[in-house]
């Protein structure tokens, strides 16, 4: 792990709602001449094939950079910043006795030699010029984020077309918050729909309603995260209140009665792993006709990536949920759903 | 390869996975578990009786027609070999002593026997024990007779010098060089399937009568009739008698044991065994039990008769057993559990026979007591309808509930395979440690139509051996051909016809000093020249092998069961049989290794010029010592198995060049000698002679396996593996044969009904892509632990968690442990 370098990126209070960069103007504003959909470009950090837990069938996920929330437990911290950024995985470094290719290229002397003879990156000095990543033979220094056009991204997605037709799968946009790069995301979805690719999105819902509304026109299914029904608590752990999120969800349900909506809650110890929290969200879900609700157990698999980008994990030291807890909470959610069905 | 786990390894794994006791005490399984417990931990023993009595008879028949000599030898064995009835068993008939055992085929590789006796029990993998008194029999009664007479010796003498040095060490032909490796001297022919149905329906009595009628009808004046047909037909009569004698000896023993037995239940079982063995396989089977016993006698006697390339496969058991099963079920004389019990009696019987390879090369090809007695289920009927029936499902159930590595279960898949079938196949894969392997009708059927089969014949194909198929009455015995080390061809392109392992000796072609090459084309042409040179010598080997095989082997029982042999009155080893199709193949070993190496050279040396040729060769010579950075760079260049057109185009070209060659020259040999990618475990010994390669592979380590990607190089998930395989195939050639494809899944990917549904759609897509074979490895805890220890080999393990992206090997130890603990139960 990189030593405790001062953090290059301070998460909170970071992003004011709607603080978009220029590429994220709404499509309909048309203040700039709009490119054809296929030529729109965006910043992506991974395109993952054979995804089986993110929508129906066998799918390809495009992970987009950028997010307007800063959840403490985020398992894709590399998604948050909307720019290409350096990542360093010391496990892969060959050590300076075998290789020092990066030391020679860094213009800012941000790379030095650690006690274990592997390199250490000082992220406070690094300006993301990425020359070292270009030089590293071992992928120890790497880049999170690359630019692709809609055309290029969908070409990758369509490579697995034959798998979608057998499984009912397709494209899932994830992130970050995939709608954060709204023009690009909408162009992707529009074009995907045109090509008859099944579409799904994993959203936190914290985006302008117009964006979500436009997206809904091209979507077959949605996974919609609701982290807490309590706005103050929501703000404490994600940096933002939940009003717009809940409001958007309600509107989405109304606007697209046929859209498959799955509300998801990542169950985080100490945040929402109590019956009251889950019950409150479940009650809210009950007000959305046809929506299903699922709980995802907290996991720490994202922690190494914090180290790679010179950050420390906000939930360091938080362990997994106790054995059986997630099942208990699922039972709570299920009971609520049944009781509200009976009431309706 | 998962099909190479030994029974103990498998059982151990099952124990680790907590599966061991699940079905132990259930009706239908108790008996088989009991027998298995008794035998599974024993080290296999060499039994000399087959070799002894075979040799004894062959000594006395010199000068006669080979097929007749063989039949007489079989009769001698049948009369004298010890017969056994194992405790608890319902099916009887062994080719050797109780416990796990292997038998000898001195006619094949007897010149290795002296060496083998000293070394077999010391082998690190697949050891055997030999009793000192048996060793004496080998040294005094068996080995001396075969000196100078074995197939292997004749072949070594027949090979031209240039071919020989690619095959064996010129000064010691007992040792293979693993470059253009002949495989004909450790098996008499390629894998084979018998038409078991014929015996079940007509009995050996029927076959014998047919031969007698033909004998009576022979033209008494015809020289061919007198010199060729007559001895063949007499051999058929003799061998039919031999099998019958052998069965009757079991009947007598069972009756004797029944008389002494005090346990009334066992007494009755023994009485039934006696009654059954007195009737089959001489006569047609009258019920399911008789059909099973008859099949088992034929199966075991075929192993006594000859060592084929991997033992005789079991054919479409769910088809030819079905009429007997159905009739008994309908008559109320058989239950499902009783049928399962009989099948499992057969599986534990199989597990005791170990295919013994005397030569070190044969051993290296088949590590871990490999076995391919394929039992085929599913597929289509002769008229092209779906063929699944109740027995299909029963056989799948047995594989789920009795998780033994025997039999090697193969499921045929076609476009109209019913949903239930695909579902149960997928469920069985999840439970049964990767079994069944799948074979694709949509590739096999059109391909074999173009090779000359009729619809009827090919619709009825059976899986045979590792990944091959047979039409038991249409194709004929085919000589084993070369396994070609494509990675050695690459090495020779780098070192101008030489290999580091073999020093300065010029073994291949001098294709020039690569340091002087100025563009990629030159390097590619040098490689291609080496590759074609290897194939050329493989075909020269083959020309000799085809001729010699018929002089050394005959197979009267196998021939009696083949329509074309009976029609033409010729032994199945005859090089060309009228009306037959000869389906042979040669093997590409190290496909992924070569593709990735060539891609790295093309990209880094010639296109991007990031690495100099001199620098590369220097690093390879020193096995990357002090050049870890270069090695890392090479390893991170584009690799086959990722649906990346850069390496896949090279893959396609390598495949095509091989197909072109065989298209042109296999006709001269009179056989189909097609291109196959199925290594058994030979990619390991082949790797042992190849120094470091430009894909970053270290010297002497394993090559890539079959048509799979190099270890850990396929980092884009399973869909990309299939698509790369598809992209690298030349669908415009009919000269292609099997491609072995192993795909790993984490249990989480296939968890629950949703996981099964996704596995089913994955299988359907594989079928759409017309890939030949696929076998799944459902990764268990053990594998994840191995990935922790050897991250290099498991770079491709993606952790599949909703909305999250990463590779297993990128996680810290602590997180990996976390994931391992979750494997198999939690939804993440
Ligand atoms: S990305 Fe940062 S560490 Fe790398 S060379 Fe540029 S400034 Fe230096
Ligand atoms: S270039 Fe990469 S492998 Fe080499 S020292 Fe730097 S980080 Fe390590």
List keywords for this structure.
heterodimer, A: 344 residues, alpha/beta, TIM Barrel, Alpha-Beta Plaits, eight-stranded mixed sheet, two-stranded antiparallel ribbon, 11 helices, 12 strands, 19% strand, disordered N terminus, B: 828 residues, five-stranded mixed sheet, 16 strands, disordered C terminus, binds iron/sulfur cluster
Structure description:
The complex is a heterodimer of chains A (344) and B (828). Chain A is of the alpha/beta class and 344 residues long. Chain A has eleven helices and twelve strands. Chain A has two domains: 30-82 and 145-343, Alpha-Beta Barrel (TIM Barrel); 85-144, Alpha-Beta Plaits. Helices cover 31% and strands 19% of the residues of chain A. In chain A, the strands form three sheets. In chain A, strands 7-1-2-8-9-10-11-12 form an eight-stranded mixed beta sheet. A two-stranded antiparallel ribbon of chain A has the order 3-6. In chain A, strand 4 (111-113) and strand 5 form a beta hairpin. In chain A, helix 3 (150-158) packs across helix 5, helix 6 (209-216) runs parallel beside helix 8 (243-255) and helix 9 (275-286) packs parallel to helix 11. Chain A is globular and about 70 Å long. The relative contact order of chain A is 0.16. The model of chain A is unreliable at 1-31 (pLDDT under 50). By secondary structure, chain B is of the alpha/beta class. In chain B, helix 18 links the parallel strand 6 (375-378) and strand 7 (409-413). The A-B interface holds A 46, 48-54, 57-58, 61, 63, 75-76, 89, 91, 94, 98-99, 101, 137-139, 159-160, 162-163, 166-169, 174, 202, 223, 264, 296-297, 299-305, 320, 326 and B 626-630, 632-633, 636, 643, 716-720, 723, 749, 754-755, 757-758, 761-762, 764-765, 768-769, 798-806, 810-812, 815, 818-819, 826-828. The complex binds iron/sulfur cluster (2 copies). One iron/sulfur cluster binds next to helix 1 of chain A.
